[in-house]
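[09:14] KT: can someone run the structure on this one? pasting the chain below
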Amino acid sequence: MRTIDSLVDAPWGQHGVLEEGPGFKAKVLIVAPRQRLSLQKHARRSEHWVVAEGTAEATAGGTVLLIGTGGTLYVPVSTTHRIANPSYFHRLVVFEVQLGACEENDIVRIEDDYGRVPSQ
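[09:31] RB: done, structure tokens below
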């Protein structure tokens, strides 16, 4: 896989913006083995995930699915969701297309393994 130049480190792996414009953003998420993103939701955007490499453990609306390479999942606005990498050895690569208001301030974290949930 060709790596983009502007990957940003995250506690769960790396991510980078591939393209963005009015009302959309396309990202790559590289999730390290046995790591997961926060359980979160968005009030102003939906997301569509495509698994490019590995197997994702995807949570959406309380349902947990295993999605292999080539599989997809659509996450509607306001749906609680999370991506995890259940592998002990291999990275997970997911392409994420966001539609709507794609600002980072639209993330509402519900659970987070890295202490990023605001105090209640």
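[09:33] KT: thanks! The longest strand covers residues 13-21.
[09:34] RB: yep, looked fine to me
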